[in-house]
Q: What sequence folds into this?
């Protein structure tokens, strides 16, 4: 660190000396700030990481972490996740009816293949045209899914037959209401909508995890990649069985598991969703 000049009594009121003294104090202050910034960032955890220096318009030199290009780098992903969280939180606050949709596919040993598969399926899912013919097919598939799903619940003992019939009736009414909503949009726009138009606007994140499949604590499958997509949208209600049927069609029968839930509209709830989505 540079030492502050020791002024003599005769030079204490010299303007040039005062300017030099203030300049050295400012340089020392900035040096201490840079040391604090580097200490807060921590040392690079992996090879290939380093530091870059940014010169601001005011002349301040700031040392920041240089991020690598590896998407699987856990060290850099923490910094990127924090940036995503800060960017997505105001978007969530602006949503009127935020919903969190999760789309999954079967696990596999090849990560690149699984990511390519779900990316292509997701594009087909969002661009799916809800024409009169395809809409009828999806409604029929959704009703069949409800019948099979509730029958399995009865077999497992989680529902009675009377409760199953109530669920089937409730989903039938919900699917009919959604079908009418699609028809009304067609009449208004004079064009059959895509599924993205009914789901609403939002943003999506891709999450990957790696592990073994276990049942009752016993490993039944080798370690595989589990890839799934989270979609946070601001739109109207869409029946869950319809989403399952549409996802099954988009994946060409490979998957049908989806999950959708209403997001808590409180600031605390929004923060939790932003934090959950940004970690992927």
A:
């Amino acid at each position: 660190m540079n030492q502050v000049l020791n002024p003599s009594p005769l030079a204490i009121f010299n303007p040039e000396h005062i300017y030099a003294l203030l300049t050295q104090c400012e340089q020392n202050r900035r040096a201490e700030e840079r040391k604090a910034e580097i200490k807060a960032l921590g040392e690079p955890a992996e090879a290939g990481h380093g530091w870059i220096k940014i010169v601001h318009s005011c002349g301040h030199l700031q040392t920041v972490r240089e991020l690598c290009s590896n998407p699987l780098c856990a060290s850099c992903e923490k910094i990127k996740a924090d940036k995503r969280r800060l960017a997505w939180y105001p978007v969530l606050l602006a949503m009127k009816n935020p919903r969190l949709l999760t789309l999954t596919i079967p696990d596999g040993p090849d990560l690149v293949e699984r990511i390519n598969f779900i990316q292509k399926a997701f594009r087909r899912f969002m661009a799916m045209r809800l024409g009169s013919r395809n809409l009828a097919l999806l409604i029929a598939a959704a009703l069949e899914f409800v019948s099979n799903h509730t029958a399995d619940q009865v077999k497992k003992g989680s529902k009675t037959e009377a409760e199953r019939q109530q669920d089937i009736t409730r989903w039938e009414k919900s699917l009919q209401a959604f079908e009418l909503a699609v028809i009304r949009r067609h009449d208004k726009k004079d064009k059959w909508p895509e599924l993205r138009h009914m789901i609403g606007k939002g943003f999506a994140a891709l999450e990957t995890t790696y592990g073994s499949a276990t049942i009752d604590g016993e490993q039944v499958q080798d370690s595989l990649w589990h890839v799934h997509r989270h979609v946070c949208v601001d739109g109207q209600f869409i029946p869950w069985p319809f989403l399952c049927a549409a996802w099954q069609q988009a994946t060409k029968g490979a998957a049908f598991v989806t999950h959708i839930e209403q997001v808590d509209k409180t600031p605390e709830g929004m923060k939790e969703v932003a934090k959950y989505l940004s970690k992927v």
Remarks:
- Helices lie at 15-41, 74-94, 111-126, 132-156, 161-189, 195-199, 240-250, 267-278.
- DSSP finds eight helices and six strands in the chain.
